[in-house]
């Protein structure tokens, strides 16, 4: 049984609600399915506004889903009331994109790291030991140099390391890392991603890694989910999708360099021309059809392609690959 199962998840935000106005919805997540085993890493990629953050926050149940199903450790938590979700909150954590706003500026590093342990009623002596160990694990050493510091006294990279230490100090079983390095200096990104990878692997933590940059996913990902306008357009084992991307959108994201190591093809990335569509009134049929070089008139613009398994574990939502 997978640790996490997500079935046809939808998160729609009502907009423009007025007395005489019909309710419209931003369909930020509009039918996404995937599974994650313990310790597995799923990279979620897609352009800005494709619904990645909303997906991550919904799966953590920080946002209430509109439809679909989320099952964690065999328990259906889709619509569970917040009051009954304490165990889920204690099993999960998030690493945020912005290390400058995600840490409370009035708290010391020691308190920032201790707080989740206090909530879990860990005794003071044990808390102190765990905090020191957490700092050592993210290489903020010697820990004594950091305990009494406030976030503004740290560099961006150091702050993100504190954010990582805080997310992992309670040994969650599942974390969402939302663009954890995109605001950091390019020179330290790979190092921080490797550190996240080694800690999640050491503690067997399942992870959803959200990024718009497919090249960074190769440091971590076992599986890849490609999102376009709220939809999962391709999903499968990371190497299989990179080696043989099937959806024209995925193909456009991955430059097909003739390199024997498929992960090296990720260095150059083309973005398909055109604008992502409106999530309030998405195009009929396949949402990518207005930008797709292989669009079949009368088919792709009429009917929405379902996500189907075309090779073992490799799914795509594209009429070019679905036998009728
Ligand atoms: N609370 C909300 N109310 C209304 N619309 C929202 C809300 N949150 C997100 N959206 C909209 O949902 C869509 C998806 O946003 P989301 O942040 O999930 O995308 P993303 O892929 O994570 O983008 P980025 O890479 O820029 O963070 C966007 O059009 C956004 O404006």
Automatic annotation (TrEMBL):
<dbReference type="InterPro" id="IPR050319">
    <property type="entry name" value="ABC_transp_ATP-bind"/>
</dbReference>
<dbReference type="InterPro" id="IPR027417">
    <property type="entry name" value="P-loop_NTPase"/>
</dbReference>
<dbReference type="GO" id="GO:0055085">
    <property type="term" value="P:transmembrane transport"/>
</dbReference>
<dbReference type="InterPro" id="IPR003439">
    <property type="entry name" value="ABC_transporter-like_ATP-bd"/>
</dbReference>
<dbReference type="Pfam" id="PF08352">
    <property type="entry name" value="oligo_HPY"/>
</dbReference>
<dbReference type="InterPro" id="IPR013563">
    <property type="entry name" value="Oligopep_ABC_C"/>
</dbReference>
<protein>
    <submittedName>
        <fullName>Oligopeptide/dipeptide ABC transporter, ATPase subunit</fullName>
    </submittedName>
</protein>
<dbReference type="GO" id="GO:0005524">
    <property type="term" value="F:ATP binding"/>
</dbReference>
<keyword id="KW-0813">Transport</keyword>
<dbReference type="InterPro" id="IPR017871">
    <property type="entry name" value="ABC_transporter-like_CS"/>
</dbReference>
<keyword id="KW-0067">ATP-binding</keyword>
<feature type="domain" description="ABC transporter">
    <location>
        <begin position="4"/>
        <end position="254"/>
    </location>
</feature>
<keyword id="KW-0547">Nucleotide-binding</keyword>
<dbReference type="Pfam" id="PF00005">
    <property type="entry name" value="ABC_tran"/>
</dbReference>
<dbReference type="InterPro" id="IPR003593">
    <property type="entry name" value="AAA+_ATPase"/>
</dbReference>
<dbReference type="GO" id="GO:0016887">
    <property type="term" value="F:ATP hydrolysis activity"/>
</dbReference>
<dbReference type="GO" id="GO:0015833">
    <property type="term" value="P:peptide transport"/>
</dbReference>
């Amino acid at each position: 049984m997978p640790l996490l199962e997500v079935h046809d998840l939808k998160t729609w935000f009502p907009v423009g609600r007025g007395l005489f106005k019909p309710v419209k919805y931003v369909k930020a997540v509009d039918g996404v399915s995937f599974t994650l085993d313990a310790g597995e890493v799923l990279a979620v990629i897609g352009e800005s506004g494709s619904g990645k953050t909303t997906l991550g926050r919904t799966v953590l149940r920080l946002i209430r889903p509109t439809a679909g199903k989320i099952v964690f450790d065999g328990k259906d938590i889709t619509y569970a009331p917040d009051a009954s979700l304490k165990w889920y909150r204690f099993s999960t954590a998030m690493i945020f994109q912005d290390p400058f706003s995600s840490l409370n500026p009035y708290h010391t590093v020691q308190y920032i790291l201790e707080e989740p342990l206090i909530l879990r009623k860990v005794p003071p002596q044990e808390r102190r030991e765990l905090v020191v160990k957490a700092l050592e694990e993210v290489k903020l050493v010697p820990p004594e140099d950091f305990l009494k510091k406030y976030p503004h006294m740290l560099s961006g990279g150091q702050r993100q390391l504190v954010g990582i230490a805080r997310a992992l100090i309670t040994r969650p079983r599942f974390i969402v890392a939302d663009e954890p390095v995109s605001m950091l200096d390019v020179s330290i990104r790979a190092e921080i991603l490797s550190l996240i990878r080694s800690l999640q692997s050491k503690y067997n933590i399942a992870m959803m890694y959200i990024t718009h940059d497919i090249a960074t996913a190769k440091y971590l990902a076992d599986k890849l989910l490609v999102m376009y306008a709220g939809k999962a357009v391709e999903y499968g084992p990371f190497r299989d999708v990179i080696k043989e991307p099937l959806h024209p959108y995925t193909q456009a994201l991955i430059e097909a360099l003739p390199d024997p190591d498929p992960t090296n093809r990720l260095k150059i990335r083309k973005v398909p021309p055109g604008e992502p569509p409106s999530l309030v009134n998405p195009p009929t049929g396949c949402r990518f059809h207005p930008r797709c070089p292989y669009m079949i008139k009368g088919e792709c613009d009429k009917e929405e392609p379902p996500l189907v398994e075309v090779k073992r574990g490799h799914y795509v939502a594209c009429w070019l690959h679905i036998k009728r």
